[in-house]
Amino acid sequence: MRLPLPTRCGGNQAPGLYSTNWLTFITAIFIFNPMVEHFSERLDIVFAALADPTRRAMLKALSTRPSTVGELASPYAISLAAASKHIKVLERAGLVKRTVQGRVHYCELDVRPMHAGLEWMRHYEQWWNRKLDVLETLLKNDTTPKNPPRSRR
User: Fold this and answer.
1) Measured between alpha carbons, how far is residue 100 from residues 5, 49, 104, 125, 126 in Å?
2) Is the dihedral angle over the CA atoms 107, 53, 86, 78 positive or is it negative?
3) What is the pLDDT of residues 89-144, one digit of tens each?
4) Where are the domains of the chain?
5) How many CB atoms lie within 10 A of CB 46?
6) What is the architecture of the domain spanning 34-112?
7) Which residues partner with 106 through β-bridges?
8) CA atoms of 79 and 83, how far apart (whole Å)
9) What number of other Cβ atoms are within 10 A of residue 100's Cβ?
10) What mean pLDDT is predicted for residues 77-82?
């Protein structure tokens, strides 16, 4: 993509050739931070995988021991193909590792991708705790009567 070249400054004209304003305003939309984008994308995939109750239940079952696809599918009224699709979503999120022994597919839980989600939530937990601490202090220092006397007419 070609960026427009700035024009020379003269009197009341737009910023010119020797101005750096165009660098700030024009190229700011093209800044790409691969670490932030990668982290955000991975976090989105993990949360999307955790959004489905069937997948959460499968992860809970895998937290006790590795299981086959059939064992993971059996508590639900779903086909092996549907269970396999759910497991593929969990695999893409990095939450499940699948190994194949002959015709049997074994699934094992990998909790490492959840740590990024926990860190993200901890950030907001700290923010909410600060806000709630301020509210608690305000309520403790509130001197207005709890039950104001009613006026009689």
Assistant:
1) 58, 22, 6, 40, 42
2) positive
3) 999 999 999 999 999 999 999 999 988 888 888 888 888 889 899 999 988 888 77
4) 34-112
5) 21
6) Orthogonal Bundle (1.10)
7) 68, 99
8) 6
9) 8
10) 90
CA distance 132 to 122: 15
Q: pLDDT for 26-73, tens place per residue?
A: 444 445 444 445 567 888 999 999 999 999 999 999 999 999 999 999
pLDDT score, position 109: 96
φ/ψ bin of 32: left (φ > 0), alpha (ψ from -120 to 50), beta (otherwise): beta
Which residue bears the tokens 């955000």?
A: 40
E strand spans, the chain: 67-68, 96-101, 104-109
Q: pTM score, two decimals?
A: 0.59
Which strands form 96-101's sheet, in the order they lie side by side? 67-68, 104-109, 96-101
> What's the one-letter identity of residue 91?
E
